[in-house]
UniProtKB/TrEMBL annotation, chain A:
<dbReference type="InterPro" id="IPR017900">
    <property type="entry name" value="4Fe4S_Fe_S_CS"/>
</dbReference>
<dbReference type="InterPro" id="IPR009051">
    <property type="entry name" value="Helical_ferredxn"/>
</dbReference>
<keyword id="KW-0479">Metal-binding</keyword>
<dbReference type="Pfam" id="PF02754">
    <property type="entry name" value="CCG"/>
</dbReference>
<dbReference type="InterPro" id="IPR017896">
    <property type="entry name" value="4Fe4S_Fe-S-bd"/>
</dbReference>
<dbReference type="InterPro" id="IPR054810">
    <property type="entry name" value="HmcF"/>
</dbReference>
<dbReference type="Pfam" id="PF13183">
    <property type="entry name" value="Fer4_8"/>
</dbReference>
<keyword id="KW-0813">Transport</keyword>
<feature type="domain" description="Cysteine-rich">
    <location>
        <begin position="338"/>
        <end position="424"/>
    </location>
</feature>
Automatic annotation (TrEMBL), chain B:
<dbReference type="InterPro" id="IPR036197">
    <property type="entry name" value="NarG-like_sf"/>
</dbReference>
<keyword id="KW-0472">Membrane</keyword>
<dbReference type="InterPro" id="IPR023234">
    <property type="entry name" value="NarG-like_domain"/>
</dbReference>
<feature type="domain" description="NarG-like">
    <location>
        <begin position="73"/>
        <end position="166"/>
    </location>
</feature>
<feature type="transmembrane region" description="Helical">
    <location>
        <begin position="112"/>
        <end position="131"/>
    </location>
</feature>
<keyword id="KW-0560">Oxidoreductase</keyword>
<feature type="transmembrane region" description="Helical">
    <location>
        <begin position="143"/>
        <end position="164"/>
    </location>
</feature>
<keyword id="KW-1003">Cell membrane</keyword>
<dbReference type="Pfam" id="PF02665">
    <property type="entry name" value="Nitrate_red_gam"/>
</dbReference>
Length: 463, 225
């Protein structure tokens, strides 16, 4: 059988398809259909010839098979150092073979590739820093995922995820109306405590436009309220767009490049429409990567930059604290050992390593901050990156992957972990659920709000 | 035979070898694609070059990159092997005599003792490369016959050269063998994985530019390779 009802080469583009695929609980039928899915070798080889240029071609060719990348991969480390987890092996055995066989591979092989691409690599790009030839497996696995997606070999949740983005332009079924309503609701709720607080939607010419992660309106609307409080206290002239507010990209995890482009374009269109001076997004690593680091290329912006300067939340926060827009009450600073999760997506992939430490210097009593080892761009993935967190089929492997972060955290002796990345936050939450090591974890927003030194005039009058 | 191998054949070898490497470098650059690679090379050339140079330096200076520091033993042998491989043939007295005869130029030459040590280093280094491929599972799994073949091609001129140098057996035979293996090695450069002689710099440069432009360089933070 060539293509199934759910498992096929066509992306999900309608609400009905989406709901039907979702109803296939756990992807039971989906994975069953996958066993019969044909490989379109011609199309596969055609895509490779069109898109595999110098970089990946050379990487595949000159890999010295030296194995120096092995130890750099946290998945190799936590999986008993089995040779099958050596980054070079993982890519040579999958993409390398597809290229060697000019796309003439079978179903079984593609399923093996799928398993490797989504459960043996989180695209954390760490190995690239340790290969003498500069071979970046994270990039190559991203490329492989694209090929697999186009052939229908993609985990069920990610097929749905990118379908969500295609249908709702959000990683969850949050419509434009839902979003605007949530903003209004949060503004009302929060206004009692913060008189004058607003969440201005579609204000033209604001200083800063804020975008977020669809999980916030859907599951943690308080995060939007917290963002609003901080903008309010900082006296920021800000806005959120009614359309183009969703910054995440499950399509990037899925390898659905066409969809990635569409989503980012939607955010950029909001920027063109509202003409803010700058933009910033929520505390999310992959969302930032999709919108700010890779997005400009997907949409074909030759300078590689978004239409206006686009900051990660940590950059905005550091700036607000540095310039005194937000003031911290020194008596409320964190006075317990605390550590910081460096998210691969904006630390290793955009160099934002010192700025988070600057924030730490304002909010943590000196002497209480403990670095993980290794830190900054050498830090390990949280264990749930690249879509790993969300894929039920690979839950066991993901739980194994969490062990690296667990060991790192245990070694610091801290009970509190600051995780300014949604995905890292989720992974650390799951880590505590799974291994019960007695830790707490937090985004920056709620921590900062608790220790703000709020100017008199912003406080409720009657108190 | 000797005259042919050190005359026209040597010319052809040099031409094919260095010309071929040059072609590979040019093809590499031509095959870069800012949109597929997702790196805006051209508009941010300054950041790119900076990142690229930092990235190359980190990996050609021993113990500079973190990789080299976390594996000191490997690093020592790796650098000794590569230095011996590059320096010995270029600065060997016997080679320079030929160079002088052919072009009337010559480079500074190594004292015989040093040249010997370097050549032996290459051999030992090569042996070590083979042994670690066999010994370590993480290297064994990615090793193919081709990898061994390339090591053999690379150390063969050193083996034959040393035999000739110590005049073990028939000197003329070993000299001939040395020249032939040397030429095979040179000819393999552009056509095999040995092309990393030039492609290493291209690939390192490219990833360095990637980091220098997109992944932090323009935010003012250099990657701590
Ligand atoms: S470190 Fe680089 S060259 Fe060596 S095996 Fe790994 S990917 Fe290949
Ligand atoms: S990108 Fe990360 S997870 Fe993937 S192979 Fe490299 S180190 Fe391992
Ligand atoms: S979830 Fe965070 S740590 Fe994990 S890969 Fe993504 S950015 Fe990196």
């Amino acid at each position: 059988m060539p293509e199934g009802q759910f498992c096929n080469k066509t992306p999900i583009t309608t609400d009905e398809q989406l709901k039907a695929t979702l109803n296939d609980k756990g992807g039971k039928q989906y994975y069953e259909e996958m066993n019969h899915l044909d490989v379109d070798s011609e199309k596969l080889w055609g895509a490779i010839q069109k898109t595999m240029k110098s970089r990946i071609k050379t990487w595949l060719e000159i890999c010295a098979h030296c194995g120096l990348c092995a130890e750099s991969c946290f998945l190799y480390q936590v999986n008993g150092r089995v040779p099958e987890q050596v980054p070079s092996y993982k890519i040579q055995a999958t993409l390398g073979q597809i290229v060697k066989k000019k796309g003439k591979v079978d179903n079984e092989f593609m399923q093996m590739c799928m398993e490797t691409a989504w459960s043996k690599c989180t695209c954390c790009n760490r190995c690239g820093m340790y290969c003498p030839h500069g071979i970046d497996m994270g990039i190559m696995f991203g490329y492989l995922r694209g090929l697999l997606y186009s052939q229908g070999f993609v985990p069920w949740e990610l097929k749905i995820g990118s379908g969500m983005h295609r249908v709702y332009r959000a990683q969850m079924d949050v419509t434009m109306e839902d979003w605007v309503e949530t903003c209004e609701w949060m503004a009302e709720e929060t206004e009692e405590e913060w008189p004058g607080l607003e969440i201005p939607v579609d204000k033209v010419g604001a200083d800063i436009m804020y975008t977020c992660n669809a999980r916030e309106p859907k599951h943690y609307p308080e995060d939007i309220a917290e963002a609003a409080i901080l903008f309010h206290v900082a006296g920021e002239n800000w806005t959120v767009p009614s359309e183009g507010w969703e910054q995440t990209s499950l399509s990037m995890f899925a390898g659905d490049w066409e969809c990635c482009k569409d989503n980012v374009q939607n955010v950029y269109d909001a920027i063109e429409r509202l003409k803010p001076k700058r933009a910033t997004g929520t505390e999310c690593g992959h969302a930032h990567r999709a919108t700010v680091i890779e997005g400009p290329y997907w949409t074909g912006r030759p300078d590689g930059q978004p239409p206006v300067p686009f900051l990660h939340y940590v950059e905005w926060l550091a700036e607000a604290l540095r310039t005194g827009k937000l003031k911290i009450d020194p008596s409320k600073r964190i006075k317990e050992p605390v550590t910081l999760q460096d998210s691969c997506n904006y630390v290793r992939n955009q160099g934002l390593k010192d700025i988070t430490r600057e924030i730490i210097s304002y909010i943590v009593e000196p002497g209480y901050f403990v670095e993980m080892a290794p830190t900054k761009e050498h830090n390990y993935c949280c264990g749930g990156g690249g879509g790993f967190n969300g894929i039920g089929k690979y839950r066991e492997q993901r739980n194994m992957a969490l062990r690296k972060k667990m060991d790192q955290i245990l070694d610091t002796g801290c009970k509190l972990v600051i995780a300014p990345c949604h995905n890292c936050w989720d992974a650390i939450r799951d880590l505590e659920e799974e291994y019960e090591i007695g830790i707490r974890w937090s985004f920056l927003k709620p921590l900062v709000i608790k220790m703000l030194d709020v100017p008199e005039h912003l406080l409720p009058k009657d108190e | 035979m000797y005259d042919f191998l050190t005359g026209p054949m040597l010319w052809v070898t040099f031409l094919v070898s260095f010309g071929g490497l040059l072609v590979r470098a040019v093809m590499y650059v031509r095959g870069l694609n800012w949109q597929l690679d997702r790196v805006a090379y051209r508009p941010n050339m300054k950041y790119g070059l900076r990142g690229g140079i930092i990235s190359i330096l980190a990996f050609i200076i021993p113990f500079r990159a973190r990789l080299w520091r976390v594996r000191p033993g490997f690093t020592l042998i790796f650098f000794a092997f590569h230095i011996g491989l590059l320096v010995t043939p270029i600065l060997l007295e016997a080679h320079n005599v030929m160079l002088k005869e052919a072009f009337g130029i010559s480079l500074p030459t190594l004292p015989t003792g040093v040249a010997d040590v370097l050549a032996w280093t290459c051999l030992v280094g090569g042996l070590f490369m083979v042994l670690r491929r066999i010994a370590f599972p993480e290297v064994r799994i990615i090793t193919t016959f081709y990898d061994y073949l390339l090591i053999a091609i690379t150390v063969a001129p050193f083996i034959t050269g040393l035999i000739a140098r110590y005049e073990m057996g028939d000197y003329n035979f070993w000299l001939m063998a040395h020249i032939i293996t040397g030429e095979i090695w040179l000819l393999s450069l552009p056509f095999t994985k040995l092309s990393h002689a030039i492609l290493f710099f291209m690939s390192r440069m490219q990833l360095g530019m990637d980091y220098g432009i997109k992944r932090g360089g323009m935010k003012g933070s250099d990657m701590a390779w």
